[in-house]
Amino acid sequence: MRAALASVYAVVRRVLGPPARLAYRLARAVARAAGVYAVRLSSADTRPGWMNRLPANRFALAALVVLAVAALYGVASFARPAASAPRHGTTVPVTSAYAACPDTHGARVSAVTPPGARGSGQASVAGAPVLLTTPGTAWSTDVKKGAGPWVFGAYGSLAPGLTVEQTTSDGGLAGTRCGRPATDLWFAGPGPADADDVSLYLTNVDDRPVTALVAALSPEGSIETPEGQNQVLVGPHSTRLVQVGVQVEGFGQTAADAKLIALHVHAMTGRISAAVRVDRKKGADWLPATAPSRRVVVPGVPSGGGRRRLLIAVPGQDEARVTVQGMAPDGAFAPVGERSLDATALAVTPFDLGFGGKSTALRLVANRPIVAALVAEKGDDFGVTAAVPPLGAADAGLVADNRDTTTLLLSAPPEHAAAVRLTQLAAQGPAAPAKDVAVPAGHTVEVALPPPAGGDDYGLTIAPRPGSGPVYAARLLEVKKKGFTLLPIAPARITAALPPVADSTVP
């Protein structure tokens, strides 16, 4: 029994520490009394028939042992700290970040980090250091055609808020944010039947293989493959190019007749970076990554002429009823002829909406999750924007590639006005005095940003001011004789959330 009691004591001591010693002494005293009692019973019961009373003696002994353990637990319980409420989740600065730039067609790759981070940091492309050494600075380089995918990594003080973009100009201006590794991504835009090429790039930045499950929706419904689930294996530190509507992994001829398409990329193991490029006879662009939600805002509908098509994809089994509201320079409005839309289940539904040539953001409220994007045509080029979360006081936005003619489209919901501070960043830091912009509730404001003196490209931070409401932002980049491209601006990943922590020793 002494050995058993010692084992219990060892466990309790690990949990409670020194206060367990007092409990152990008391329990041992009780146990010693139990032993003396057992000896006396044994010596007294020598007459015939004592064995008939042994079960009762054993039960008495067992009761004393239980009492010893109870004493050990009971006294120790007084020494335990009172149950404390679980700690709320906290946030900490990001310490490492990756961004995968898809296969380049001859591109400019640009990177920027926000100011404010402390300590040392390092950035590299494919393991080679780059000239981005200080938070709050920008960097860019021109990459030759066929250089292959670039994986941009940052550590320490250069990781929080790292934003990397690539912009190509062959066949039309096309810009995209180099994707962070994720587990679930959506894209919507023109399909193989309305394009010369639709290419899906899947990049694995990690040391283990990743299996990506790719699903597709068209106006006719879900696109299926004869093999069932469409799985693509991506090896460590490699990229897979999938031509949608051509290769088996891209649904082959099953998707070739789709004029519109929504692609869902889900990492079944690990995480994946994904990008989708669409090339047409007139223009090219990358499709922005987005996510399903019941309430979404699509910013960055540019002003001017040309067709504007809203695309709504419904991942679920039921039709979605969607209410549409526009936010323009002269206030909130209902698009001409449409206020409530019906979007087909498991399909992509297009809507031609009238905006009167105004720069606009669209707020969509649905009765079930939807994926929303918009295709804007202008001259011989087209651009695609998609739903993104709002920027907030703790969630600034960054844009890495700004040059030639850059215009910001800032929109505030009808419930709250917004105020933001714009800061241009060059290789040496801030390139011009910060500019404050007010955005009235329910309005969209266009902000033209000329390049700072002494440079033709720069990074940009978009930081809502204290007390500001949420703001939705997009960048319109135009280059002479090369077209235009749209980029919805999502919040930069500056911090990472840690889960709540509770004392596991307290019931």
CATH architectural category of the domain at 291-387: Sandwich
Q: Please, what is the average pLDDT?
A: 83
CA-based gyration radius:
32 Å
Largest sheet, described in full? 8 strands, antiparallel
**Helix content bin:** 10-25%
- Classification by helices and strands: mainly beta
The separation of the N and C termini measures: 28 Å
**CATH top level assignment of the domain at 291-387:** Mainly Beta
What sort of overall outline do the alpha carbons produce when their principal axes are compared?
globular
Question: What is the tally of beta strands?
Answer: 36
Can you count the helices?
3
CATH topology of the domain at 291-387: Hypothetical Protein Tm1070, Chain: A
Amount of beta strand: 35-45%
CATH homologous superfamily annotation of the domain at 291-387: TM1070-like
Enumerate the spans where pLDDT stays under 50 for 5 or more consecutive residues: 11-20, 34-73, 75-86
Account of the protein in words:
- This protein is mainly beta and 507 residues long.
- Among the domains are: 2-79; 291-387, Sandwich (Hypothetical Protein Tm1070, Chain: A).
- It has three helices and 36 strands.
- The strands form eight sheets. Strands 19, 20, 21, 22, 23, 24, 25 and 26 form an eight-stranded antiparallel β-sheet that branches. Strands 10, 12, 13, 14 and 16 form a five-stranded antiparallel β-sheet that branches.
- Helix 1 runs parallel beside helix 3 and helix 2 packs antiparallel against helix 3 (54-79).
